[in-house]
Amino acid sequence: MGAAPTILLRDDAALRVFDTGQGGFPVVFQHGLGGDAAQVAQNFPDGPSYRLLTVECRSQGGSGAGTTRPFSIAMFADDVLAAANAAGIDRFVAGGISMGAAIALQLAARHPHRVAGLVLVRPAWAFDAAPQNMRPYVEVAELILSRPLSVARDIFATSATAARFRTEAPDNLASLLGFFARANANVFAEVMRATANDGPGVTRAAAAGLAFPTLVIGSGIDLVHPLATAHSLADAIPNAVFAEVTPKATDKGRHFAEIRAAIGSFLDTNFNNQDPS
Fold first, then answer.
1. What is the pLDDT of residue 275?
2. Between the N and C ends of the chain, which has fewer C-beta atoms within 10 Å?
């Protein structure tokens, strides 16, 4: 993202907030677990016609961890809403990738008067906490927290989990191995374990009551973000639009281009002429 971030102090955590674009309906769009504002920029349509607000969640991107525990999706959602308040944004489209999608879903369920639409990209959670597809994150986190990093990485790289991912979802495996090389690996492992064991805190019944435009995007060849999870959310939310894009493991450039196009079309169709007030 081109614009310099501002800093939002939450408890004792200094969070980087990116607020870009000049016009259009505001979109609050969050990165995935371990991601940052650059990941959002990869997935969000280019151009100044959208006002885009992104918070780099605690211990992710350039944001500090703070001392408040436990980490949770609810904590991150509260931080995002505080950033929207600080930016003077009343109503917005809530969206995100993976963990960001869970944050957006929670914001929509808890604050329906603030959320005007939903964009859920490659969701990793539907309604249950600690889904099986997030177990590899717990496995990686527990290795990081219990062993020297080089030893932990070697153990995971030769594990049954890694062998399966190497064959079935190599892009996911690259992300998991990357966590061992993070400068803040130990504190981020706390974030990873807590978040992977958490959930969006939204029931299927609550999702069925969401009465605003929704886009759900899924893709195949992805063990962390199962296509079935995206379908489950799209089926539960009334009148949700579902889009399947090229898997990232097949063609990264096409994958991101298709996501950007789907989001751009959704926003133009539903919010191009709306007044956020």
1. 60
2. C
Q: Is residue 1 part of a domain?
A: no
CA distance to 13, 90, 107, 187, 215, per residue, from 264 (Å): 33, 21, 21, 35, 11
Mean pLDDT, all residues of the chain: 96
Phi, psi of 17 (to 5 degrees): -120, 125
The model's pLDDT over 50-81, given as tens digits with 9 standing for 90+, comes to 899 999 999 999 999 999 999 999 999 999 99
- Give the HSE-up count for residue 71: Cα atoms under 13 Å, Cβ half-sphere: 22
Number of domains in the chain: 2
CATH number (domain holding residue 228): 3.40.50.1820
- CB within 8 Å of 135: residues ≥ 6 apart: 161, 196
